[in-house]
Amino acid sequence: MKNFFEKNKIFLAIIIGALIVGIAVYFGLQKSSEEELSSTPIQCLAPPEVIVTKIIDGDTVVVEGGYHVRLLGIDADESGYPCYDEAKSRLEELVLNQEVKLEKDVTDVDQYKRCLRYVFLGEQNICLELVKEGLAIARFYEPDVKYKEEITLAEKTAIENKVGCKWAGSKLSQPLTPGKFENLSSEKTGLEVIFACNAGNYYGKEVIVEGKVADAYYDLKSNTVFFNFEKAYPNQCFTGVIFSSDQYKFVQSPEEYYLNKIVRIRGEIKEYQGKPEIILEEPSQIEIGK
């Protein structure tokens, strides 16, 4: 046996070397294939004309094939928020079990792998209709702005005429918990009180914004506190910001103190990365409802 190995050691070395190279190539190809698959962009496979089989909420549906479709240009309340049931019921009335047209803008799918589409029933733009009826707000993100002018105008009209669940009876969507404000009121300040999700219509104006702080956090990198209203970042309606230079004036850990509270913020509404915000420099600019 010893003689056999000695006589054939070159041959055996070649075989072992080939095996090692083969295994390395196999795993290298497998890794490359996995990387290629992971880098392949996810695409919406829903056909342009399809039947709606389920309504998730006022801005999301399921169509034949099980594809989830997020309606572009609008934002409706999620479960637990004031207008959730009305928006969902109305969308069911409009498109459930109906064949609709799905129209793409620029972005194909969102981070949750949902198809991003405008939904049409015949010639009727369903996204536009929900805003007209005061059941959803206008919400656009670049570059998907094809119907921004029409839908934004419809929202403005609905607000002015106090139409639907969002705007009926008040310029505020009804708060989850009724709150009284001692200082930040129209009577004491002479300023208009608006709902957080309507703040985008008031750029450059000083107003009082009311809503629920759904998400608040302290950013270590910039030493800045952010209050996101109604929904968590990046889907918030409005943001209150406290820069590091002013934080010593406020309560300790304001990101915890104001979280999940119905609050009002006073100040000039500015635009930052397509979203409305107010910069807080004094504690008198913010108040919790009692």
Topology:
Layout: H1 2-39, E1 49-57, E2 60-63, E3 67-71, E4 74-75, H2 84-95, E5 99-103, E6 115-121, E7 124-125, H3 126-132, E8 137-138, H4 148-160, H5 164-167, H6 186-189, E9 193-195, E10 206-219, E11 224-229, E12 238-242, H7 254-257, E13 262-268, E14 270-272, E15 275-279, E16 286-288
Parallel strand pairs: 3-6, 9-10, 12-15
Antiparallel strand pairs: 1-2, 1-5, 2-3, 4-8, 5-6, 6-7, 10-11, 10-13, 11-12, 13-16, 14-15
Helix pairs in contact: 3-4
Characteristic terms for this protein:
28% helix, single chain, 290 residues, OB fold (Dihydrolipoamide Acetyltransferase, E2P), 16 strands, five-stranded mixed beta barrel, alpha+beta
Our count of domains comes out at 2
* Fold-level CATH name of the largest domain: OB fold (Dihydrolipoamide Acetyltransferase, E2P)
Query: What class, by secondary structure content?
Result: alpha+beta
- How many β strands by DSSP? 16
Which value, in Å, is the CA radius of gyration? 27 Å
Question: Which percent range fits the helix content?
Answer: 25-40%
Apparent shape: flat
Short description:
This protein is an alpha+beta fold and 290 residues long.
